């Protein structure tokens, strides 16, 4: 059953002529991990903003559990691409703050839970550091821990591992899978990424977006059973075929875009 | 001692020597108008009781004026900064009222308020209010959208948004407004004391200049300078504590 629905959603930012998102229809099932790939400017981040309830759609309908999404809510946790930690709070305080504000924990229980979450992302020795004292990757790990502190049924993640180095990215991807499938009730994850391998490793389905204005070009089912193993996955001929398909879809878009621009300029 | 501190000490000694040279040793300057260093030092010791009383009186006025300004300007600034409609509505009023030099209110405040204490606290309050208020608004406006968005997605309450997000987020702007407020309120304090007080640092300087007792005037100016230096140093400490999270 579709949990999150976008029905003919369009978004035009005030002052812009061209819509950022045009007539986007997408359904995400309960417990599904959907990855969105696409070139920059294809409305991936705008879609997150719409689903988070931070930006109202110009037209169309977004629903969660069949009720319209109008404002941010505790049923959706968001991991932003960047700068989402509160710089005046230490790593630990950022998580404690989220736990308390969401009303899940108070007092000593909040501190204990925050320490547990920080330990989970491997940063327990950095709990008293301010974000300005952490590397980009560490900040993003704290942001992920903070998002999971909310224990929301839906996770909206905007290139969460973009700023993380390759080694930590692998760890965090596995952590995401663990958290996603952990403790019985499966979370629903909407993951924006520019990394095709990441999408193929993590996702149940991949939505390929096209730019200017943002639309879904194709939805690809990822057939590999879980648990997936990176080492075997990359040798699977289906994996290579899917990877090439997505790449050529993206490249075709970019080529067409270029041709249009060049044609328009009269070259 | 660090090279910087050594340089500063040397500069200080040079200035004192120049002072001593131009007054006591060479008699270049009119002794009526330009007292000698030792003369001023003697007066600082002699009048120490008046100085202590004056400092306490001045601090009392400064404290109440600045405290009232802080308690009103920051919460109001946060609310106005957060509320776009309110901000646009009051913008013309702030544009007219903000730039009026608060010093022009002094005679009027003395006329409308029953005691000198009340009128000077009021003047200091006005002077300290605007820089803090305007900077708090600017600080909220300058807050990164990503930070506000992430607070909204966590589901913070309105109260928590103001206290835990907007206040610390606007703090870099607030403290620079506060520095302007502090300097301005000290100027207004001494100006008000010169006009209507019977005690205080501004009063001391004005009172003795009326008797052409310029050695005491210079001593008073030196005390005022030292007090301002102390206040600003303490304020710097407070600033670096409040912004300790910045690199």
The CATH superfamily of chain A is identified as P-loop containing nucleotide triphosphate hydrolases
Helix content class of chain B:
over 70%
What spatial form of chain A do the alpha-carbon principal axes imply?
A: globular
Ranges of chain B with pLDDT <50 over ≥5 residues? Answer: none
Secondary-structure arrangement, i.e. CATH architecture of chain A: 3-Layer(aba) Sandwich
CATH topology of chain A: Rossmann fold
Count of the separate structural domains of chain A: 1
**Helix/strand/pairing category of chain A:** alpha/beta
Low-confidence stretches of chain A: none
Average of pLDDT of chain B: 94
The beta-strand count of chain A equals 10
User: How much strand content do the residues of chain B show?
Assistant: under 5%
The total of helices of chain A stands at 8
CATH structural class of chain A:
Alpha Beta
Largest sheet of chain A: 6 strands, mixed
Q: Largest sheet of chain B, if any?
A: none
Distance between the termini of chain A: 50 Å
**In angstroms, what separates the terminal alpha carbons of chain B?**
26 Å
Oligomer kind: heterodimer
The run of helices and strands of chain A is: EEEHEEEHHHEHEHEEHH
Describe the model:
The N and C termini of chain A lie far apart (50 Å). In chain A, strands 6-7-8-3-9-10 form a six-stranded mixed sheet, with helices on both faces. A four-stranded antiparallel sheet of chain A has the order 2-1-4-5, with helices on one face. Chain A has a single domain (2-75, 152-264), classed as Rossmann fold. Chain A has helices at 44-52, 91-101, 107-120, 136-149, 166-181, 196-202, 230-233, 237-265, and strands spanning 2-11, 21-29, 33-37, 59-64, 67-68, 76-79, 154-158, 188-192, 205-210, 215-221. Helix content of chain A is 39%, strand content 22%. Chain A is built from eight helices and ten strands. Chain B is built from ten helices and no strands. Chain B has 247 residues and is an all-alpha fold.
């Amino acid at each position: 059953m579709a949990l999150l629905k976008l029905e003919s959603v369009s978004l035009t930012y005030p002052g812009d002529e061209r819509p950022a998102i045009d007539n986007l229809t997408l359904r995400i099932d309960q417990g599904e991990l959907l990855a969105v790939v696409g070139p920059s400017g294809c409305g991936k981040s705008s879609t997150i903003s719409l689903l988070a309830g931070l930006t109202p759609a110009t037209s169309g309908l977004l629903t969660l559990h069949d009720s319209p999404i109008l404002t941010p809510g505790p049923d959706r946790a968001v991991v932003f691409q960047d700068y989402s930690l509160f710089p005046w709070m230490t790593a630990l305080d950022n998580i404690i703050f989220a736990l308390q504000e969401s009303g899940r924990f108070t007092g000593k229980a909040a501190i204990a839970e925050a320490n547990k979450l920080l330990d989970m992302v491997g940063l327990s020795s950095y709990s008293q550091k301010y974000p300005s004292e952490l590397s980009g990757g560490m900040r993003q790990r704290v942001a992920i821990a903070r998002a999971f502190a909310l224990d929301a049924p839906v996770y909206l993640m905007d290139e969460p591992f973009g700023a993380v180095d390759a080694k930590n990215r692998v760890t965090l991807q596995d952590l995401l899978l663990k958290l996603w499938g952990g403790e019985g009730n499966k979370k629903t994850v909407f993951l924006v990424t520019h990394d095709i391998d990441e999408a193929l490793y993590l996702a149940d389905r991949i939505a390929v977006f096209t730019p200017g204005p943002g639309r879904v070009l194709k939805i690809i089912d990822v057939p590999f059973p879980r648990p997936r193993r990176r080492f075997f996955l990359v040798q699977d001929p289906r994996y290579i075929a899917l990877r090439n398909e997505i790449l050529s879809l993206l490249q075709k878009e970019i080529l067409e875009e270029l041709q249009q621009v060049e044609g328009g300029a009269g070259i | 001692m660090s090279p910087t501190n050594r340089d500063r000490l040397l500069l200080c000694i040079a200035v004192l020597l120049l002072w001593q040279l131009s007054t006591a040793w060479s008699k270049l300057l009119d002794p009526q108008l330009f007292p000698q260093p030792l003369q001023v030092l003697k007066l600082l010791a002699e009048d120490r009781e008046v100085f202590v009383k004056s400092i306490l009186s001045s601090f009392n006025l400064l404290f109440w004026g600045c405290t009232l300004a802080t308690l009103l300007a920051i919460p109001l600034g946060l609310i106005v900064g957060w509320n776009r409609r309110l901000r646009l509505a009051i913008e013309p009023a702030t544009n007219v009222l903000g730039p009026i030099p608060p010093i022009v209110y002094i005679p009027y405040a003395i006329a409308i308020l029953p005691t000198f204490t009340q009128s000077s606290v009021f003047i200091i309050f006005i002077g300290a209010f605007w820089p803090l208020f305007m900077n708090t608004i600017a600080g909220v406006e300058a807050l990164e959208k990503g930070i506000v968005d992430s607070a909204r997605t966590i589901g913070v309450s309105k109260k928590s948004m103001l206290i835990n997000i907007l206040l610390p987020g606007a703090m870099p702007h607030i403290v620079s407004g506060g520095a302007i407020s502090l300097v301005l309120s000290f100027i207004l304090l001494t100006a008000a004391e010169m006009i209507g007080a019977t005690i205080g640092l501004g009063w001391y300087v004005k009172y003795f200049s009326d008797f052409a007792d310029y050695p005491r005037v210079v001593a008073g100016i030196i005390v005022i300078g030292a007090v301002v230096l102390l206040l600003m140093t303490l304020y710097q400490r407070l600033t670096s504590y409040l912004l300790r999270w910045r690199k």
